[in-house]
Amino acid sequence: MNMKRQYIILAILTTLCLHVSAQGFHTGYFTDGYLFRHEMNPTFENEKSYFSIPAIGNVNAKTMGNFGYENVVRDNPLYPTLSTKELTTFMNPYLDNQLKGFSKGNNKINAQAHVSILSAGFKKFGGYNTIELNVRGMAYGKIPYELFELATNTSNKNYQIGDVAFMAQSFAELAIGHSRQINERLRLGAKAKILVGVAQASIEMNDVTVDLMTQDKWTIHGDAQAHVSMKGFKYKSESKEYESRPGSYKRVNDVDIDGSGIGGIGFGVDLGGSYKISDDLQVSASLLDLGFISWSNDMYATNIEKDFVFDGFHDVDFIKAKDNHATHQVDKYSDQVSDFYNLKDMGDKGSRLTTLGATINLACQYILPSYRQLKFGALSSTRLQGKHTWTEMRLSGNIEPLKWLSGGASIAVNSYTTSLGWIVNIHPKSFNFFVGMDHLMGKFSKEMIPLSSNASVSVGFNVTW
Q1: How confident is residue 461, by pLDDT bands cut at 50, 70 and 90?
Q2: pLDDT tens by residue, 400-425
Q3: Which tens digits make up the pLDDT trace of 231-275?
Q4: Residue 206: what pLDDT?
Q5: CB 23 within 8 A of CB 381
Q6: How far apart are CA 4 and CA 9, in angstroms?
Q7: pLDDT > 80? residue 342
Q8: DSSP letter assigned to residue 8
């Protein structure tokens, strides 16, 4: 399979269109009857045994970020009278405010996916046990404001850009968990995970500075590196000439994937505990995704020339012409980003080890003494992912007005935005159905892409007994 020039631009454009999730549905952390609380803390047990309906038992989708599709893709001001609006990008010089909505610091996006292929939970062996087969994926991006400013080419000045970083990985996990009551107040739980890696990629350009040479040429200095681990993956190169050096050399401009399969094997654990201070007050904590994947290959590329000439980014209008459809536009942008990174294929460097990125959850729950069907909770979550680390603080209120019906609402402040969440959980004797969001969705484009990078949905149907 030939993937046309999208291996780098993927992080800039495609991640803005992702609609996938972080591990765990945080609004459901304190919700009675929500079967998958054990994903956020392996200590939690369910009153019932359950078996998930394959592939629809637990689908959880969420993105978080401080910029999004609406900042990158705009209505084209050159065609304001058309019945069907044409689109352009923020790089279009005819826009009144090209950099509207971009953060003055680092612009970040975080997207993760978690789908349960199979999942079951039951009481046995002196506690509660879970068995899961999940498919997960995650992507992170960090782009300094100055890079977007350079892309508009309006200031014609020197730029101190700093670090640009992207990471993505996908894997399957087989997890076996067990939790048990230690005494009247303390309960502990753990999960062991076998991980099967599909692909992992990280692209970084550190300490980037851009110095103006002429009106439309800059000298770029920075240390760029790309690591890709995936079975059958190869870089493709073309000869490229640069003013900064005589002659030409081969520069990465494409990738090729020949076949697919297992890219790596790893191991991980989840650890958790809860402590009942009183009948009304309980605290809990968990450490999730403490583990690694050993990948069988490391396709490495770097910019041999740390200083080179770059002639800038150029806007490509989103128009209806047959030869300028979306795929063609992505190819053109990818060429420009390839020039910016200036990577050279260094071949396969052998195996490498990557971590999952651990999550720390700390929580406190209070049950209202006068009406015990109502409780309140506070949940602090921190994802440790190097340059892509994020934190969140969420307050929840949950109610169970009927034995078969529970729900709740939450409000959160995280590293990207403020969120409102909700959950409805229907759990009679024979089945469990839940639906909710950690972040209320805003407006969508006509292509049904969320305009903001903050969106969430969680849904699942399971058999219980």
Answers
A1: very high
A2: 999 999 999 999 999 999 999 999 99
A3: 999 999 888 765 555 556 688 888 888 877 899 999 999 999 999
A4: 94
A5: no
A6: 10
A7: yes
A8: T
Q: In angstroms, rounded to a whole number, what is the distance separating the alpha carbons of residues 383 and 57?
A: 25
User: Between 309 and 123, whose confidence is greater?
Assistant: 123
Ordered DSSP codes for 371-390:
-TTEEEEEEEEEE--GGG-E
Question: What is the residue whose two structure tokens read 């402590």?
Answer: 275
Q: Which two tokens stand for residue 40?
A: 């956020």
Residue 415 to residue 389: CA distance in whole angstroms: 9
Enter the tokens of residue 249.
């050399």
- CA dist 20 and 386 (Å) reads 21
Q: Estimate the share of the chain in helix, then strand, then coil, as percent rounded to the nearest 5.
A: 10, 55, 35
Buried b vs exposed e over 48-74: b needs ≥16 C-beta within 10 Å? bbbbbeeeebbbbbbbbbbbbbbbbbb
Q: 162 or 448: whose pLDDT is higher?
A: 162
| Buried-state track 182-221, b at ≥16 Cβ within 10 A, e below 16 | eeeeebbbbbebebbbbbbbbbbbeebbbeeeeeeebbbb
- pLDDT, residue 446, reads 74
Q: Which is higher by pLDDT, 315 or 237?
A: 237
Contact 323, 383 (CB under 8 A): no
Amino acid at 277: I
Within 315-387, where are the H helices? Answer: 326-341
pTM (two decimals)? 0.88
**Residue 432: helix, strand or coil by DSSP?**
strand
How many Å apart are CA 92 and CA 74, to the nearest integer?
Answer: 9
Distances (CA, A) of 66 to 331, 391, 453: 26, 14, 7
Structural contact between residues 346 and 300, judged by C-beta atoms closer than 8 angstroms: yes
